[in-house]
Amino acid sequence: MMADENIKNSNELEFVVFCIENVAAKLGVDAERVYQAFTEKSDILNGYIVPEYEVLHTQSREYIVDDLLDVIKERAVEISFSNGEVQREQSSGMTANPILLQKKYCRIIECFAKQQGLSLDAALNFFYHSEVYQMIRDGVSDMHCMSDAYLVDELEQEYSRNME
Questions:
Q1: DSSP, res 125
Q2: Which of 32, 57, 114, 123 has the fewest beta carbons under 10 Å from its own?
Q3: pTM above 0.85, yes or no
Q4: Mean pLDDT, residues 99-118 taken together
């Protein structure tokens, strides 16, 4: 078993978001569910993805996703989804490029972490549980087209409301 490691820099953060989003796409579920499976139902994020970053990030997308699906299966981690998620996936009119969206998520998370004095892990956790993420993901009001600064501000407001 590998030692748990926290996300140390923007390259690792970008890779973690890449893993979460691509496994979600492969399984046809919301990335929030994959994030929960990697962090709350297991230690796949900090016990496998981050410690093995140096090796894994040199592989192809298909290899990485298949490897992570194998790890999920080996650790008997369940990722379930409701019928509502299937309908949302099919009805979403957003056509943002997934790679550009992943990079946008990373910039938002990194800026939010810096401005709030949070670790990248804590900022990632808040982001994937936030209403802001859900609105971006679902294409509400073209949130994905808003500037990073605007979205960080929205995330900070949500964070402040949750801290009250």
A1: H
A2: 114
A3: yes
A4: 96
